[in-house]
């Protein structure tokens, strides 16, 4: 059984770009960087990869959101704001070139920075719960 504490930890690792595995018999979490990331160095993570591959039947895999899902989280955050001026600025940034970068620059230099981090954390936790529901 995956506890709320495990779900939160998995969500945090996914947010850091990791692929996570939950080992059902021991209720432990293994993780390593996404192998499709251009900076992935398999040699550094070989021990963890082999550990998971050698016992794959006992692991449940969790993946980070894809870019479309991440974009929706940013949109949902923008639409959740009561500050119409800032909401419109965010929506504008999301509808122009480099939406992820421009959203991040604007929100991280605003008074809504901590609200964004809390919102994103909850979205990632919900994402992990969805993966559990359909596994």
Descriptive account of the structure:
- The protein is mainly alpha-helical.
- The protein has six helices and three strands; from the N terminus they run αββαβαααα.
- The protein has a three-stranded antiparallel sheet with strand order 2-1-3, sandwiched between helices.
- A hairpin with a 4-residue loop joins strand 1 and strand 2.
- Helix 1 crosses helix 6 (113-133), helix 3 runs antiparallel to helix 4 and helix 4 runs antiparallel to helix 5.
- The radius of gyration is 17 Å and the shape is elongated.
- The chain starts with a helix and ends with a helix.
- The model has no long low-confidence stretch (mean pLDDT 94).
Structural class: mainly alpha
Which residue ranges are poorly predicted, with pLDDT under 50 across at least 5 consecutive positions?
A: none
> Helix proportion of residues, in percent?
55-70%
Q: End-to-end span in angstroms?
A: 13 Å
Looking across the biggest beta sheet, what order are the strands in? 2-1-3
Largest sheet: 3 strands, antiparallel
Beta-strand residue percentage: 5-15%
Mass-distribution shape: elongated
The helix/strand series, from N terminus to C terminus, equals HEEHEHHHH
The count of strands amounts to 3
Radius of gyration: 17 Å
**H/I helix tally:** 6
Please tell me the overall pLDDT. Answer: 94
